[in-house]
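Good morning C.,

I know you're traveling, so I'll keep this short. The sequence:
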Amino acid sequence: MTRLQLHWQILIAMILAVIAGFATGMDAGIAGVTFYSIYEFIGGLFLNALKMLIVPLITASIITGVAAIGTGDGFGRLGTKTVIYYFATSLLAILTGLFFVNLITPGIVDGVPAGSLMGLEADVSNIVNNAQGRGASDFFTVFERMLPPNIFKAAADGQMLGIIVFSLIFAYYMVRIPEKYASVMTDFWQAMMHIMLKITELVMKFAPIGVFALVAKVVASTGFSAIVPLASFAATVFLALLVHTIITLPLLLTFVGRVHPLRHFQAMFPAMMMAFSTSSSAATLPVTLDCVEKRAGVSNRVSSFVLPLGATINMDGTALYECVAVIFIAQAYGIDLSLGLQFLIVTTALLTSVGVAGVPAASLVAIVVILAAAGLPAEGIGLILAVDRILDMCRTTVNIFSDSCGAVIIARSEGEQGVLEKVPAS
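The tokens, ready to paste straight into the viewer:
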């Protein structure tokens, strides 16, 4: 018997959750236990499982990704171009998301924070004070957090900026020690990465149950009033992703890569469809390599270096989504974000997107990190889970398209001829 794919399971869970939450409300129960408390308990377990993955998953992902660059020419001309491109496009994506989420304000409904419509129960006054305490001063102290005096305490406290910077430095020097030691460390972190991906897969197998509980809890306490802000949030993310894909990246292809953007869209269509259906940059990588080399005409020398690295550290769509999601949650709590706090969110989104594994829903882990950095409760992630899967499909498509644009632009900068000179065969 064929098993339903995860996104269909989650979609069915969402539909059942709406029905169950509306039918049970907050008071119905069995044997003295309310269904609402059951939803709350199961949803809390799912959130705890996501939090459990944060430190090892992001640390292993960053170290293995940076170590893949290697030594010698790895950090030479080609490596420098690749890293600059990836960070630049991720920053542009985040700023696009920041613009639209401030313009549309999906977390505000008729001038009122949407939290009351979506079943937020946290003490808003404490959250506001916590967030305001992380305002303008964090413009400077964010750099202090990058170098924590105790890396293990930073990990225990969830201060991921320090973990990310330490991981980057660790990986850089890990491949510059004697080979007999470097190989041991490389094997260890690659094994750690594979283990964490397996654990992430295990947790995501329970995602339909977790989504059911979290959505049912919201519907049970609010009815259908949560639909309006959620639809507005999804539309904001989709619009920002669309602008980045059809305006920002094509402009880079045209003026930096000096190639025709439409031809590149045609060349990458199979890989984009694969990314949309799997929601996994890693799973799409073989198709991406094939499209970039055979349909776009990029050499194996460039594609084999740029694309595997991009599947690990280049997450334009993910970075954009993280930024919009965190600010949407802040708006829903009624928090007026200062420029300093928005700078902190942008910086953290940029750095955590580097450490997001190229598997479905891995960005949820990074969003928990950013919520903590901004002084917001992790429970706020429950607001977006109902639409996360379809947006995951969209942002993964943007991720791999940006990777492919990077391969083309870097190949052209290296003087390669024949890149996208012909219309790709259908």
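Safe travels,
E.
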